[in-house]
Design brief:
Pfam families: SecE. The chain is an all-alpha fold. Helices cover about 80% and strands about 0% of the residues.
């Protein structure tokens, strides 16, 4: 597996403008939602969703958005390479986890009751 140890960050003024526009559109959507308080709810929601969609579109046209899309595509490729356990293996592993949890709970309960008996009954002499 080859890893790229160098990270290039290229911030052009156009890229910064796209990110600023996306932020302003997102902020504008929130402001529009609350400033249109006298109108029906569906109109406010449509205005909010439209401005958020424009903000997302502006973000994905920037270099950061393109890198995010590339990361998503690579992640999907990696997930396809995963060897998933069979149903039988998954059930066996789940049963082992439940058995271990039960045994640990039993051990802790026995330890608690033993310490309770030793401390309260034998050492302090408090009979219940």
């Amino acid at each position: 597996m080859a890893t790229n140890s160098q990270i290039e960050t290229v911030n052009t003024s156009a890229d910064k403008a796209k990110l600023a526009a996306a932020a302003l559109l997102l902020l504008g959507g929130i402001v529009a939602f609350y400033s249109l308080g006298r109108l029906d709810l569906w109109i406010r929601v449509v205005a909010l969703l439209a401005l958020v969609a424009l903000a997302v579109g502006a973000f994905f046209t920037s270099e950061s958005g393109k890198q995010l899309i590339g990361f998503g595509k690579e992640s999907v490729k990696e997930v396809k390479k995963v060897v998933w356990p069979t149903r039988k293996e998954a059930l066996q592993n789940t049963a082992m986890v439940f058995a271990f949890v039960f045994l640990m709970a039993l051990f802790l309960w026995i330890t608690d009751k033993t310490l309770e008996f030793v401390l309260y009954d034998l050492i302090l002499g408090w009979k219940r």
